[in-house]
Amino acid sequence: MESVIVACITGVVTLVGVILSNSKSRAVMEVKLDALTAKVEKPEAGP
Fold first, then answer.
1. Which whole-number Å values give the CA distances from 2 to 8, 11, 16, in the listed order?
2. Measured between alpha carbons, how far is 15 from 20 in angstroms, rounded to an integer?
3. Which H or E run includes 31?
4. What are 10-33's pLDDT values in tens digits?
């Protein structure tokens, strides 16, 4: 019974870690995408 409880706790902790990691990497990706979009939309000064 002890091992089942430990396995459940480990699973929950792992799931929380994956969710937090995913949200952080998604936030970084969105910031980079916004910067790239702004760079593309900004007209380049012609020669």
1. 10, 14, 21
2. 9
3. helix 2-41
4. 999 999 999 888 888 888 888 899
